[in-house]
Fold these 2 entries.
Entry 1:
Amino acid sequence: MFIEPAIGNNNPKDKKGHIEVICGSMFSGKTEELIRRLNRALIAKQKVEIFKPAIDTRYHESDVVSHNETVIRSTPVQFADDIILLAGDCDVVGIDEAQFFDQQIVTVANKLATAGKRVIMAGLDMDFEGRPFDPMPQLLASAEYVTKVHAICMKCGDLASYSYRLTPAKEKVVLGEKDSYEARCRKCFYENKA
Ligand SMILES: Nc1ncnc2c1ncn2[C@@H]1O[C@H](COP(=O)(O)OP(=O)(O)O)[C@@H](O)[C@H]1O
Ligand SMILES: Cc1cn([C@H]2C[C@H](O)[C@@H](COP(=O)(O)O)O2)c(=O)[nH]c1=O
Ligand SMILES: [Zn+2]
């Protein structure tokens, strides 16, 4: 379980920003873990701003919603740079579906953290082909704290770190849920692939 570094310290003089990245496959609990951390920051009376890419409207136009239907309000943004303007004087910045942002998200996350904010990001580390999902590798490299969470393989019940696409679509970005993806372990992911 991730334990927050110095969560209760609201003294602006002591503020030291950092980046946390929560990564893993689909259904691995990235959004639930993001919401858990953000709710705890709210309990600690910190000012929290939450963003998600505007393209992700699967469950809700603005809220961040997990597969298990835990919810937190958020602001959808088109470009990573919008986050700098909208973050204002908050203490904590939460970002879901980080893999859908442009490469500028790496500079934005670093700027916010260097300005003293706690930046918590969740995103897919691999795409449906098992390849790194840019810009996640760069975000992982910049992060002080990395948490990799795992789903359950829908084939064998082992731990899963791959997102298997059930449809023939070949584009990198195809929004979907259980209708078009399932979590799989390495063995079951590569089983039917050439
Ligand atoms: N194969 C699976 N493995 C684990 N959890 C699953 C699976 N399929 C559905 N779930 C549900 O998804 C929830 C996690 O959802 P969420 O936090 O939105 O994941 P992520 O953001 O990583 O896609 C779990 O608590 C569980 O209820
Ligand atoms: C693997 C993969 C996934 N996607 C899409 C499918 C979903 O809409 C999101 C991931 O959501 P989650 O909160 O992590 O479950 O990403 C995609 O567009 N391309 C892919 O390769
Ligand atoms: Zn498996």
Entry 2:
Amino acid sequence: MSEFEQSTADGPAPRPSYRLKKTVALVGMMGAGKTAVGRSVAQRLGVPFLDSDAEIERAANLSVPEIFARDGETFFRKRESEVIARLLDAHCGILSTGGGAFLAEVNRRNIGERGVSVWLDADLDLLWQRVRHKDTRPLLRTADPRGTLAALYEARVPLYRKADLAVTCKQNLSIEAMAQRVIDTLLTRPDVLEKINA
Ligand SMILES: Nc1ncnc2c1ncn2[C@@H]1O[C@H](COP(=O)(O)OP(=O)(O)O)[C@@H](O)[C@H]1O
Ligand SMILES: O=C(O)C1=C[C@@H](OP(=O)(O)O)[C@@H](O)[C@H](O)C1
Ligand SMILES: [Mg+2]
């Protein structure tokens, strides 16, 4: 991991700590593991972790489903773009975005200018397995949530492909193993590392 700039902070550290000069944004479908894997990547590297949904919820003092119900998706997307722009300026570390964030051109441009994007690429069956029992994704509150997820998947994959890197999620890979895969993938790309450290 020598390509990441090692922190010079004094004192004993439980694990190596790296200083990123930009943000690594995880993108991809709901259920891909952006929040869980992002947190683990950040822990492994000893860098800050933020999740755009959590930041939106904190600022509104409401959950994502509550924001959708009260103010609608358009309002949520506006907040999401603002939060992502703000975090890209203020935060050097790992940023897990919500599944719809990378669809907006302004978010892709901001992430591209001020960070790098990593697509967690999971197939539809795996995504469905992960989200089917949870009621936290308002877009899936439809008569046919599996069909809705499939339609979102079809529409979104071409946009996720625009990410700087893609890491394939596999059924049998734990959160920890996925996090290591993300780090290993970053390490194989000097051009991306250069961008993070510039
Ligand atoms: N590699 C994995 N192995 C097992 N469970 C996972 C894995 N990645 C994510 N999960 C679980 O799947 C669910 C969705 O993950 P989450 O991180 O919330 O995805 P996202 O933020 O992309 O919507 C959570 O319950 C999480 O703990
Ligand atoms: O796919 C989407 O449009 C959304 C995904 C959710 O985040 P996760 O991808 O972290 O579940 C959250 O931002 C919101 O429910 C909308
Ligand atoms: Mg998430």
